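Subject: Sanity check before I submit

Could someone independently write out the structure tokens for this chain? I want to compare against mine line by line before I put it in a report. The sequence has 186 residues.
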Amino acid sequence: MLNSRGYGVQSPYAYTFLLDVVRQENPYYDYARLHSERTYTESAVDNTEEVDKLLFRISNFVQPDNILVPESWVMSRDYLSAGCRKSAVMSYADKDDLCQLVESQPILDMVCMDHLQTAYHIKDRLLSRISSKSIFIIKNIRQKPSLWQELQTEDRARQIFDLYNWGIVFFNPVLTRGKYFVNAFK
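---
Independent answer below. Compare away.
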């Protein structure tokens, strides 16, 4: 819980990520437009606007060339692409579809997943395409805590952020290895 405001974080990168992305409260340039375009047909698979704003900030912070995102995250795709306009945002329907997308990309910059089982089943394929810029964003990490623990022990996972129901993993080898627990985000 102490990490949620950046206290006790020794890594400058993690500190910046916590304060400027996770805990950022100031509105960004596209929030008003995205809010006005948001369709409020809430379903079980859509992310909340709060989560979509976090995804926007992550995309803006990382500046990925490609983003793989579940097909069911309809509004999230708009937020991710608005965060980094140069990104190619590609949707996948299921694990097999994700495998095909992974195989078609020489390097994965940002991969968003609905749950850990997706990551677990194709972990080797995903990890074979990571670079120093790669980041995984995983929803519902509490459904399979043992899989989340296993992913955290991966040697190439450098900085891991546990946002209770969301997991964020950075793979940049120059980053100091660390795990950060955040009780809430803005």
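---
OP: Matches mine. For the report I'm noting this point. The chain has one domain: 2-181.
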